[in-house]
Amino acid sequence: MRAALETIIIGILVCASIINLARFFENTMGMPPREAQDVGIWENRLSGIRGALIRAGYGSGDIGYMPINVFKGSRMTTQEDINWVMTRYVMIPLNVRQNTMDVPFVIFDYTGTAQPEIPNGFVTEFDSVNGLLLLRKVQAQ
Amino acid sequence: MSEAVLLLSLLGLFVTVAIGYFFTALLWPRGIDSSLPFAIAPAIGAGLSSLIFFLFRRPMFTVEAALAVSLGAAWLYRRLVSNPIKSGQRWSMSFLALFLAAVVGIVFAGLTVRVNRMPHGYWDALAVWNSHARYLFRDGTSWQEHIRNTFHPGYGLLVPSMTARLWRYAGEEFPDAGGLVGILLTLTSAAILITTLWELRDYRLAVIVGLILLTTSSYLEVGAAQYADVPLAVYFLSTVALVYFHFEKAPDRSTLLLLAGLTTGCAGWTKNEGILFIFVTTLLILGTWMMRRLSLRALAMFLTGMALPLMVILFFKYVITVESDAIFLYGDVIGRIKNPNRYVMILQSTWSAVWSFGAWVINPMIPLFLLVLLRGIDRRILHHAGWLIGASAILLSLAGYYAIYVISPYDLRWHLNSSLGRLLLQLWPSVLLLVGLAARSLASEALPLKKHATGD
After folding, report:
1. What is the 3-state secondary structure (H, E, C) of chain B?
2. How many contacts does A have with B, using Cβ atoms within 8 A?
3. Which pLDDT score is estimated for B455?
4. Quick check: A92 and B134 CB within 8 A?
5. Of A17, B216, B309, B442, which residue is least crowded by CB atoms under 10 Å?
6. Cβ-based contacts of B175 with chain A (< 8 Å)
7. Residue B9 vs residue B329, higher pLDDT
8. CB–CB of B421/B181 below 8 Å?
């Protein structure tokens, strides 16, 4: 009797395993393709800027990340916060400071808008032509 | 990822496993047949490789090669002069064993697909663990200063250093590296669980409990997400298994406790919850020694095993990153402790999470408990120091998590929702092992019958 009951319980657990594994596979196959991962896309968008900073000999130190909305005085959105975290990840070992222009280089994010005028005191170091500009602070004369 | 990168990174994982196996096999008590050294090798190897990476950096390859060759030579010598470690297991082509093999294959495929589709890992992976790995790989000797710019710079470096180490092997950065480490350690946890139960109970129970872990959907997802929770779970499980093995199989020899000390230390080197585990496990081992159920030599071996990772943790936390872990003491701590609503909310959330943290379609817990009850509780565990230490370590860790939630300065609902499920996943393999060990084995049922039959 006990052996039969044990076999039944083991059967239930085996069935549960199959169903749970099927759920795992269903979730897995529903994942977006590799190319769609946001941070991978962001890494590609920033690759030109990374190269420009290396060419400029700036491999370590602070840079800024400034979305155009924040620059114009609006409150930072959640997406802009997420973009800053992804920028930090991509630009390592540089330290990407959020919403600041008080650094030698600034990644100016104007995604979704027309290309803006360059802020006073800065020049364009690199235009990635995808909504991101690398601005360099000009030394005061 | 190119073929060359894949092959070189697999070589890196192979070296890790080889170092782990030789080290474990050399410390394994003579005359005790077991497959556990094979199963636990990736966990031990990952801990040792991570410590080598942290301590030696540039000459990492030289140190690893020297260690692998010397350990391998010592292992070979031991094999030649004495009987090799044999497994007491006998693999039989039963339906359950075949089913388990199929599930392992399917899970491996699923984990590989997940890593391929999310090569940088989930959010915390890129914000914390892979960011730290990039500082270790990209920033030369300046990483010690610049890692302070990341989120949670004081988190242990076991997972990031394993990722950066694979990049060193491959000669370039590729995002899937953390995923490869995650797959290895996810499967390692199942191997340790199944091997331990197979050897200390019986194969039916081992396969069923292993299946439950291997089909816990959220455990697999977190394992492939490049988080540190599954590696931490592996070190919890390794410690519980090794301590049990010590008291069950080799109480007179202490080398298993040296390995247990190492895995306990590696838990702290993996994540902050592991530091709590170091604290409670050390207290329990000390208590066992004070009750004269553990020799002074065994206690010393446990502390010796833990010494290197513990020193590295202290050096990293208090010399390099200087991050304060006292964030939970910010604000009105006394007010939070006195607020009864927080206790109720944590208990309610925990009760709810216990049934859902695995993201199961069918929760296996009730059938598992029924199986254990049907087998009968092995009453020896109530006096078994190994089981009691393991169960107490898990319960005290859970109590520690509870206390952290009580004093948490964050919005409590948010804090519970964002972390409670993963905390339970950290303990899940150890809980499964302890539940499995609580059941009587088929062999123990057969024994009295045999005695009766022979008239003894």
Report:
1. CCHHHHHHHHHHHHHHHHHHHHHHHHHCCCCCCCCHHHHHHHHHHHHHHHHHHHHHCCCHHHHHHHHHHHHHHHHHHHHHHCCCCCCCCCCCCCHHHHHHHHHHHHHHHHHHHHHHHCCCCCHHHHHHHHHHHHHHHHCHHHHHHHHHHCCCCCCCCHHHHHHHHHHHHHCCCCCCHHHHHHHHHHHHHHHHHHHHHHHHCCHHHHHHHHHHHHCCHHHHHHHHCCCCHHHHHHHHHHHHHHHHHHHHHCCCCCHHHHHHHHHHHHHHHHCHHHHHHHHHHHHHHHHHHHCCCCCHHHHHHHHHHHHHHHHHHHHHHHHHHCCCCHHHHCCCHHHHHHCHHHHHHHHHHHHHHHHHCCCCCCCCHHHHHHHHHHHCECHHHHHCHHHHHHHHHHHHHHHHHHHHHHHCCCCHHHHHHHHHHHHHHHHHHHHHHHHHHHECCHHHHHHHHHHHHHCC
2. 123
3. 35
4. yes
5. B442
6. 40
7. B9
8. no
Structure ipTM: 0.92
Q: How confident is the model at residue B84 (pLDDT cuts 50, 70, 90)?
A: low
Amino acid (1-letter code) at residue B219: Y
Tell me the domain boundaries of chain B.
3-79+94-438
Q: How far apart are the first and last CA of chain B?
A: 65
Please give the span between the terminal C-alpha atoms of chain A, in angstroms, as a whole number.
94
**What size, in residues, is chain A?**
141
The residue type found at B51 is: L
What are residue B9's phi and psi, to 5 degrees? -70, -35
Is it the case that residue B446 has pLDDT exceeding 90?
no
Q: Quick check: B103 contacting A, CB < 8 Å?
A: yes
Do residue A10 and residue B208 have CB atoms under 8 angstroms apart?
yes
Ranges of each domain in chain A: 1-31, 34-137
Question: Could you tell me which chain B residue has the CA closest to the CA of A15?
Answer: B362
CB contact under 8 Å between A92 and B138, yes or no, is: yes
